[in-house]
């Protein structure tokens, strides 16, 4: 009697990684490769056209004493414009001010404060964007009348709007959240509009033939079909909300937040450029964390039922 092939096939597939795991592994390797490549380009540019530098110390018990005089001279790669990577890394474990806490402690505390402002602005902007997207989907007249104004609103520089919002709103953190919402609502509006219109027209006509109300069509057909587009726009909005919060902190005079750190370390850039670069790195990491949280929520909501649209 022939031996069934199914057990053997199951055993052969048991040791294989799933396509999802392979995709996640490839994504992680790509991010690590990009990060390493950036460091190589950074220090390579300084090695070719930066200021003379010297490495002196002991690494893993091996003494190092290396001097280098770059063959070229580039203004953009001087120690003032582009500090060494190890100088930026070392700034995190140095006091932010004389006899003060470490820079990493100050930046993490300010990052949490900025994240709170960005989260409130993200919630306001995402809600407004979804409401506008639904309204434009239900009414072609409203879409033709107001979408041009929604698009035109993004042509006004946020740097010009931020001081006005800060003046009119008495609460500092609320003004910053409104500025973050200003950058957030636009991508959500466009994503919602496109996603709600992506439902199969035949399915819409079928539900209408059964006398289904427009509200039921919205909740049972259009919104589920729009989830990939909505989460794609929410990931863009998450990073935009962090940018809006930092920009809003600059004219607000709030003593907390990454915007305050940027203003503070900008004044002492000549004596300590690595501190400003460290603040920029923390701001970038905050944006990545926020986008990662949106991805995690997307995974919980969709649970692999929808193909995610990469942005």
Strand order of the largest sheet: 1-2
**Secondary-structure element sequence?**
HHEEHHHHHHHHH
Distance between the termini: 54 Å
Percentage of residues in helical conformation: over 70%
Number of helices: 11
Write down the overall geometry.
elongated
The major pleated sheet works out as: 2 strands, antiparallel
How big is the Rg? 26 Å
The residue ranges in which pLDDT falls below 50 over 5 or more consecutive positions are 1-12
Please, what is the average pLDDT? 85
Q: Structural class per helix/strand content?
A: mainly alpha
Topology, number of strands: 2
Beta-strand portion reads under 5%
Concise structural overview:
This protein is 71% helix and 5% strand. The protein is built from eleven helices and two strands, in the order ααββααααααααα.
Task: Characterise this structure.
With 311 residues, this protein is mainly alpha-helical. The chain has eleven helices and two strands, in the order H-H-E-E-H-H-H-H-H-H-H-H-H. The protein has a two-stranded antiparallel ribbon with strand order 1-2. Helix 3 (85-91) crosses helix 11 (273-302), helix 4 (103-138) crosses helix 7 and helix 4 packs across helix 11.
Write the layout of secondary structure elements.
Blueprint: H1 6-14, H2 19-49, E1 53-59, E2 62-68, H3 85-91, H4 103-138, H5 140-153, H6 158-168, H7 172-196, H8 201-209, H9 214-252, H10 258-267, H11 273-302
Defining traits:
two-stranded antiparallel sheet; 311 residues; 71% helix; 2 strands
